Structures are given as C-alpha cells and as structure tokens.
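Teaching note: in complex prediction, the entire set of molecules is handled at once rather than each chain in isolation. The prompt given to students was simply: 'Predict the structure of this complex.' The entities are:
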Amino acid sequence: MLSVLLASGVANGLLYGLVALGVVVLAKAANAFNFSQGDVMALGGFVSYAVIVTMGYGSVAALPIVVIVALFVGVLSYLLLRPLMDAQHAVALLTATIGLSFLVKGTIRLIWGRQGDYFAVPPLVSGPPIILFDGAVIIPLQHLVMSGGAVLMLALFALFFRFTRLGLFMRSVADNPRAARIVGIPTELVLCSAMVLSLVVSAVAGFLLAPATLIFPDMGFSLFLKGFAAAIIGGMMSLPGAVIGGVLLGVTEVLVSGYISSTAQELSAFVLIFVALIFFPRGLFGGRSSRSV
Amino acid sequence: MAVPVQSIRSAWRSGSWVYPVAIAVVVALIGMTLNPYLLFLLTRVVIFSMLVAGLNVLMGYSGLLSFAHAALFGIGAYVTGLMQVHLGVPYPVALLTATVGVTGAGTLLVLPALRLSGIHLAIATLAVAQAVHWVLINWSAVTFGAGGFRAPSIAIFGLNATQSIFLTSLVLTTIGYLMVRQLVRTSFGRKFVAIRDNSVAAAANGVNVTATKTIAFALSAGCAGLAGGLYSALLGFVAPESFNLEQMILMKVMAVVGGLGTMLGSMIGPALVIFLQEQLRDSQGWLEIIFGAVLIGFVLFLPKGIAPLIYRVLAGKRTETVETGPRTGQKVGLSAPTDRAVEN
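The expected output is the structure of the full assembly:
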C-alpha cells in the first residue's frame, strides 16, 4: 500500500516539479509568471491523445509533436506579450497571461469537445508492476516511466543551464536586464527562449501525465497552482528546489488521499500552498529576509 | 472615523450624489418596463457593479491582487441562502449577517496580504478560494454539495420576485457606490493609491500600511458579501459552480475592461461582460477564447479601460481616475497637478 502510494506520489510530484521548473525558468530569466503554463500542460496531454488515439501513431511519435506544438505556442505567446515583459508591467503581464490561459483552454475545448468530457490516453508502456522484496514494495510500471521521463527532463535542464551560453545569458538577464543588454547579451532572445522553455517543459509534463489520469480541458489550472506551489516551496529561484518541492507536494497529496480521505487530497494541496506562502515565502531552503512594510 | 463623516457631509452639500441617483432612478424606471429575462440580466449587471466596485478598491486603487472575490461572493450567497433555509431567518437579517460575516472573512485575508504582494498574494488568495470552493462542494450536510440548493426569493410592495430583487439591488448598489466613491475621494483613497505605488514611501510618510490594507480588504469583501446575498435571491438557486475560478476571472475582466481605478468603470465593465456572456452562452469554448482575447487586448492596447475614454468625451468634467494624481517618482511642480488631486 505505502509503496504504491509513494510511487504515485513521487511520480506526480516529479511532474509538478517539471511545471515548477518552467515557473522558475521564467521567473529567473524574465521575472515573470505565466498562468497559461497549466493549460499548455493540458494541451500537451490533448495533443498526445490526438496523435496516439485519434491518428493511431505510437507514443514515441507523440512526444516530438507535443514539443513542436509547445514551441509554436511559446513563440506566439512571447510575440503577443513582448511589450509587457519588463519590470514595470509585472501585474499587467500577469493579467495578460490569465487571458492567455483562457485562450488556450477555450481552444482545447473547441477542438476536443465540451466541458465535462474526459479522455483516456493509453499507457506509454504496459506490463506487470515491479515487485521487490517479496511483494513488500510494489511499483506500478506506469509510475516508473513517468518518473524516468521527468528525471530525464530535469537532467536535460540541469545540463542546459550548466553548459550552454543561453543558460548563462538567462541568469544574467534575470540579474540585471539593462546591464545584460549593455554587454551585448541578446535580451530578446533570452526572454523568448525562457517563455518557450517554460511552456515546452509544461507540455512534456502533460504528455507524461496524460496516460496516468483522465484528461479534460479544465485540468490545467490546478496543475499550474501546484507547480507554482512547488516552486515556492523550493525557493522560487532554485531548480533542484523546485523539483524537491514538487515531490514533497506530490507525496503529501497521496498520503492524505490514502490515509485520510481521497476528497481531502485537493484540499491538502491548497493548505500546503497557503502554509508555504505564509511561513516560508522564500522556500524551505531560502534565506530569511526582513521587511518592515 | 471623523474623516468619513465629514466627507459624507461635504459630499451631501456638494451635490455630487445627484447624477448617480438620477441615473439609478432612470435605470429603475427602465427596468420596471423590461421583460423578466432582460430584467434578470439588468439585475445581474447591477449586482456585479457592486462587486466590481469593491474589487476595484482592492485591485485598482490599492494594487492588491486578490483572487478570492468569487469565493467571498459565494460565501455571501451561501450564508444568505442557508440561513433562510436552515434557520428560517428573514431575508434582510440573513443578508446583513452575510455581509458582516464576509467582511470579517475578507479582513482575515489581509493576513497573507501583509506579508505577500503581487503574484504571491494572488496565489495565496487563489488557494483560499479553491479551498472555499472545495468546502462548498464537500460539506454536503450544510451546503447541499455540488448540486446546490434552492434559495428563497423575495417580494416587496406586491411586485414579482425579479422586480423586487432588482429594486433592492439597485438601491443598495447605489448607496454602496456612493459610499465607496466618497471613501476613495477622501484621504483614504490617496492612501490606497500610496500603498499601491510604493508602500515603503507611503509608510515613511505616515500612512499606516497595515490599517490601510485592512480597510481595503474589508471594504471590498463587504461589497462582495452583500452582492452575493443579493445574487442568491436573484438566482433562486445557489450552486458552487456560480462561484468558481472562471467567475473570478470574469470579474477581473469586468474590472479591467471598465477601467481599473475608476468608479465609472465598475459600472461599464459588468454591463459589457454580461452582455457578451449572454451572446456567447451556447459555446463555452468561444466564450473562453473571446474573453481571453479581450483581456489580453485591453491589457496591451487599452490598459486603463473604457472609463477614461468616456471621461475624455466629457472633457472639462472633473475626472475620478486615480491616475490624475502624481505618480511615484513623477516630478511635480508647485502648481496645478497636486492641488487638483487634493481637491478631487
């Protein structure tokens, strides 16, 4: 029981972690937040549904198409929101991304049906669960694949920020956009790629999540909320922190649903978000800061 | 509290209440001739005007991002309806209790707002809103769960239910509008704007940031609670889905379209959004796409909303936008702008 719960908690948590990575990347590079991330995650699920179920291709074909769609949406979002991507327009940008989230959700609903319609995507792999220690530990294969995919994405992210110039550019633009522009860093490119990256990682998370759950057009928002919460728990500016925050959130959720009540699962996430914001606004690993007003 | 009393007295003498009251009377006369369906829509506009006026105090004047208004609105509707259903309390008592209760609940929301701002406050209030929504769905013993319940309607002066709630809403919204407008014209309004533009500078100049934020939240929650109570009697049926996140975003669209930081915008926004919503009621998908596009379009191209355009048409009239005052960091001469701002 516990091992199955933990496996699904970790798997879900890693996906929240992926969304949180998107949140952190955008926050670091552009000091911006994008409400449409959750809906793009849902879009990732729906696109993989279209490729796998409607068109009848394999899961392997779905992934590149999901990434391409997310790239497209990301570039369009950037072009649309470019005038707002600076410090003076933080609140306006936030409001605009709420509009963007509505746009994406409405598009999903127009293409894939009415409210309340649920879709099932076949599992990426099928097979018996992995049983260790004579049945003491049971790990469903699906969760293993989800976790594996998420970990792979995380590794790619870490490598990207560690070893590419663009990763370094992003950090410098986040630190001081004006100075970055003066020393010749292509700020526009950095902002654009931060927006695109955050949406691509969300869409891939949606692709990984889709087989484990039923997908529906309204699923996006609470996923964004959880990803954001994971980013806050992790301190908002730290990539590993975002992943740890996601896993913590995922595990808390399944433990509450397994041992207390399954309806309380959703509530536990909101309570955790609220507590994290009030008591650890700089994250579990962030430093203390004092502010008088 | 001497300041509001004085300002109400001066508002009375200045006669600035004449136009809104005259407009309300005209709306009442038109409303009584409409068919029930159109009257229902008009009443929704009136009720949402009150709600958005309150939201505007928070978002437009004080710059505090709250996503809890749909939830507060819902609590107002549920408390009003449930008190009548479970306890058999008369409507006015239930409405008053709901307004006071929601004002209290909204005031508690200031606790996160004291520590958080911007997106963090938005997410914290979102979490609260989602939790409230969860309670409305899952606490079936009291709230009748996801299916909702029939709330009693009201009848006054021998009119039918819709006409009764229409007149009640119109009177209360007009009073609420005048009071909120008066408040934002006093030093309180300037304090709201001061903490919005720069809370550190405001504190340095003697503005009590905690008290000002608390008042902003209480005022705006009170409007939401009262509007919710009216809405329950209008709908005659209260269910959680009337108060979900989608509704919250529509309220935001109303505030942005009308014009953040303007009182006139609180009237225009709901009228336009509810009109558009009725045109699009057949397709949820198109509704979301169009409202999404409207929100982005306004933020990009008309960030101050429609109200300033109307003020410009009525040029020469005194304007009520908060933008007429000097902004943080703006250099002001010794003459006109500051004086005018104080006079407003």
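Point out the following to students. The beta strands of chain A are 119-120, 130-132, 137-139, 214-215. Chain A has a mean pLDDT of 81.
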